[in-house]
Design a protein that fits this description.
With 115 residues, this protein is an alpha+beta fold. It has helices spanning 2-11, 14-25, 30-35, 41-53, 76-84, 86-114; strands at 28-29, 57-62, 65-70. It folds into two domains: 2-75, Arc Repressor Mutant, subunit A (Orthogonal Bundle), CATH 1.10.10.10; 85-114. The protein has a three-stranded antiparallel sheet with strand order 1-3-2. A hairpin with a 2-residue loop joins strand 2 (57-62) and strand 3. The longest helix is centred in the C-terminal third of the chain and has 29 residues, at 86-114. The termini are far apart. Pfam families: HTH_20.
């Protein structure tokens, strides 16, 4: 359960979500990520550390560079957690469908009774 807390923490910030969008397109160095934002390299590094703690990115060293890569499977725990609540939407949508069908059936009966 601790992992999902760290993942939600990582996703809570709009800058980190935007970083994830950039990393979904390609791997990037800290410098390349920094170029996408009007914040300091140190701030980007902090965001990247939080994303790594949330297991949403991985970092590997290539020469002198640290390359950041999206780890999409890190989102699976979030998807599973949110997916649990689909059942409540399904129940409500089923209830709405039944209410609409009942109203249509009542309208048809009313029209037939008048004819």
């Amino acid at each position: 359960m601790m992992r999902i807390q760290e993942t939600f923490r990582a996703l809570a910030d709009p800058t980190r979500r935007e970083i994830l969008m950039h990393l979904s397109r390609r791997e990037m160095t800290i410098g390349e990520v920094t170029d996408k934002f009007e914040i300091t390299r140190a701030a980007v590094k902090k965001h990247l550390n939080i994303l790594e703690e949330g297991q949403l990115i991985s970092v590997h060293v290539q020469g002198r560079e640290r390359i950041n890569r999206l780890e999409a499977q890190g989102l699976s725990a979030v998807s599973d957690w949110i997916g649990y609540f689909d059942q409540f939407w399904d129940q409500r949508l089923d209830a709405l469908k039944n209410a609409v069908e009942d109203a249509e059936n009542a309208k048809r009966k009313s029209i037939k009774g008048k004819v």
